[in-house]
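<given_protein>
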Amino acid sequence: MNQTIITQVLPCDPTSISFSDSNGDSTPIISSEETLASLKTAVSDLVSLNVPVVFPTETVYGLAAPALISSAVSQIFTTKGRPADNPLIVHVSSPEMLKSILPSSFVIPSSYNLLMQAFWPGPLTLLFPATPQIPSIITASRDTVAIRMPSHPVARALIQMCNTPLAAPSANTSGSPSPTKAEHVLHNLFGKVRVILDGGPCDVGLESTVVDGLSSDGAIRVLRPGGVTVEDMERVLAVGGVTPKILVHRRDFRDEGLENAPTTPGMKYRHYSPSIPVVLLLTSIPPENQTALSLPETFSIILSSYPPNSPVKIGLLTPSDSPLSSLPSRLKRYAEVELNWDYFPLGTVDEPSLTAQRLFDGLLTLERNGVDLIIVEGVEEAREGLAVMNRVRKAAGEVHWVAVDEPLSQFDAR
């Protein structure tokens, strides 16, 4: 008989944690007794019991286990229902911990040194050669391992107190939107995990950028866009006198072998999808092989599967200054279908970092509010918008190009 798991949410105040050096090499200084007690409970579960613990990072909440213990890591896959061929990211708290799991003969590339100096600790994951001490369950039996150093004080303190690297994907059922608040985790994994460390909302809100700079051509390949933008990496490398090509997967290159046997999470399977349909509306100029439909034509398609004279509750995620943000106040009924709206603004068009921070929270909030479908407006694929669109495209079951020059007037006669 399976033993019942009692889930505890333990508060951790990030502002009560400090380090005597910027790299996190030292023992964390924790001024809050409550936070210290919460961290000690989590460390005991991880190190003594070898069971997974949920912890906050600056990107999303993670489900952690000691990275060098296969039996502990396997519980991550069981808890999430994660496919075995989907690799994990290893989290370290210091340069010394990083060196301890790298091959002794490996020379860190100059591009990596520049990126680590600029973005570690932070939302950047780098691929390194894997050593035998890294369990194959983490790497999906590939010869590389993805590693990052998180900047969230609770995450850094937890790893340092465990004195061992932690493997951690997002703390959610595999395929669903990543949690950015402890309450998201509690709703999704209640009764499946013992401890959730509540360190408040995640600042970035999307997973880390994953970079492979190990190829012989010297190029920087962005396998997953995330919290560190391509533009920021280009700037840092240029200032450092290193100017490799930065290639973004699916935008600048395709690799069928890599997609079938990925070296990093987020590449092979459908991800970030709530349990209800997600529709992506693209309002930019379509490519030559696509035609933008009017909003009435688009809504006819979206609502075609719903019976007439029955209410449909639509969740809407758009920038707050988008023309589409006015739809809930004007479009109450269409084609004999009553429309009830639940609007979750994503910040303004010129705030892609805020859009990134709010995206997963919006998807999870609207799902919990009981909407029947979620409509997401696409954003420009620049800076954090590149990562936003990477996630939305994977979450959406439908994608439509729409013309929104006069969105409200198109509905006035209906």
Remarks:
- The chain has two domains: 8-260, 278-412.
- The CA atoms of residues 95 and 413 lie 64 Å apart.
- DSSP finds 14 helices and 20 strands in the chain.
